[in-house]
Amino acid sequence: MPTLPTVLVARQSNGNFAVRVRNGKAETSHVVSVPSGLEADLGLEGTAGEALVRASFAFLLDREPASSILPKFSLDVISRYFPEYRREIHNYL
Description:
Blueprint: E1 6-11, E2 17-23, E3 26-33, H1 38-41, H2 49-61, E4 72-74, H3 78-81, H4 85-88
Parallel strand pairs: 3-4
Antiparallel strand pairs: 1-2, 2-3
């Protein structure tokens, strides 16, 4: 049975989030920004940034390996690659 990846999220001093995804011995690192107002735009007012980042990575990992996820990106670009993101992110929280 394959192991589920572990997603570690830490807020950085500049407001971005450092994300590490571990899957067995493989590990990837990412820097993610959350644009101001994105939570409200997604209908997720009051959701903590860390929770939204973690849920967004769960969404992405259901669709692609961690090695395919951009090393640095803003959460608002996910819907460019996966149009269903805005509709489905609620299911990951």
